[in-house]
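Please think about what follows:
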Amino acid sequence: MNTKETVLILIDLQKESNFGLQHLDDVLSNTKDVIQACRDADIPIIYTRQINRLDGVGLSKGEPITPDGTPFYYSTSNENHEILDEIAPNAEDIVVDKYRWSAFHETSLDLILRSLGAKNLIIGGVVTDGCVMTTVFDAYFKDYNVHLIKDMCATSNEGAHMASLMIMANWVYNLEIYNANHLIDRLNGKNYSHWTFKEADALQFTPENMRKVYENLEPKENK
């Protein structure tokens, strides 16, 4: 991975707490480590924020609202749309606000990435089965190489987390999946482990075998 052609994208790691995200503490700890490794390697960092205006302008159809008619999630009426303090951006970092799940949909993200000369995108964040997955698919459609950090992603339940990762693994043909420590090893020029695509729809799963199939995403050593 050429670090001069690489960008870290952190998806919606905001103060919004209404989702009840699982393993968020672990996600934040891993994110801190990856942020530091990217800073050490002079890799640009982009944060995205999901924004729902208090007045409802631009709100998605069917977006949950409160009894008083204001957005339930990521409302600009409070600090829930702000990045979590533990991983707050530095002055040199880039923040991209978005009004739909994918970080590419009608935002400046693609323009920014191309101006940075990016070819490789390191991606992590929340939620796995929503904003992360749609961003990964759009990154693939725009011909970026996608490096997804599995333990930097979270959603509200285990089944949705596993299913969305396996769907991405089945159909994003250039996807590479890491645990955070393995991605850091790669950035540091050490031996690392990761999972790579072998064939389409390889991780066929049912409700009964989902957890067993998910184990196949465990990164394998690459020297």
